[in-house]
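In the laboratory, one determines a bound structure by crystallizing the protein with its ligand and collecting diffraction data. In a computational setting the workflow is compressed into a single prediction: the sequence and the ligand go in, and a structural description comes out. We illustrate the idea with fe (iii) ion.
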Amino acid sequence: MPTLDELRSTHPDIAPDFTIPQHWERYSAAEHEVWQTLFERQMTVLPGRACREFMDGFSLLKLEHDRIPDFGRLSEKLTKLTGWSVVAVPSLVPDEIFFDHLANRRFPAGQFIRKPEQLDYIEEPDVFHDVFGHVPMLANPVFADYMQAYGKGGQRAQSEFGALKNLARLYWYTVEFGLIQNAEGLRIYGSGIVSSSAESVYAAQSPSPNRIAFDLERVMRTEYRIDDFQESYFVISSFRELFEETYKDFAPLYKKLASGPVYKPGDIVATDNVITRGTHSYRARTHSLPA
Ligand code: PHE
Ligand code: FE
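The predicted complex, in structure-token form:
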């Protein structure tokens, strides 16, 4: 990850908290078109697959289909709903900077957009992943509180417990790749899923991955893969439940996690409440994508 000094050469106006001006007026027509292509693709995929809270946030914020959002105007709407704002950053930021933003209800979003030849896969989060994927859930009051609590918890995990790895797994299996099952059925909400058309279909319907009921300690013991679709998803039953499970002192849990097993991404363990056991027959990056 580049340091602040290194980033100054490409972003002379970067602030100590790693934010930069979005410079919305500098996006080209071709860049807005990439947004539009991705947006329209997701609109055909998300209804019936994304959970109600995501779809509601999405309509409340009125994201436009044909242009990259202006973070200033988007933040005005979001602040009215939950007190969150969106700030621009060049790319991934150091952990402590990231936690500080979340703890203060600021979501750091990548300023750049992927190239037309990278529609399906990027290594660093861009404005489509960060805004389309993350921001609708921040319009939900319970999820908004969860994200702030996570930021505060990150500061504590880092400074007091050296447990960042465990906490990062919780973020990965909820915020980025979480599923929810309630009266609506099984639905997606993780930003890494809802911003990917192929993974939206895969996570919601493919027989390939495991889907396992969320369990905090189990999740915190589970490694994850960043180079392919997930082999296991963890399923919550409500955002209230997720918040209540995590809004307690993690000190005893961190102590427990310092020993005991670490699970591989596709493992199923005896204590799991398995919702669907995966066939593990499908790998996205080595197969052609489903339509
Ligand atoms: N409760 C956690 C702690 O005591 C903080 C936290 C809250 C972490 C919500 C993640 C999500 O450190
Ligand atoms: Fe993300």
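Residues 146, 149-150, 153, 156, 170, 246-250 surround phenylalanine (ligand 1) (CB under 6 Å). Keep in mind that any predicted model is a hypothesis to be tested, not a measurement.
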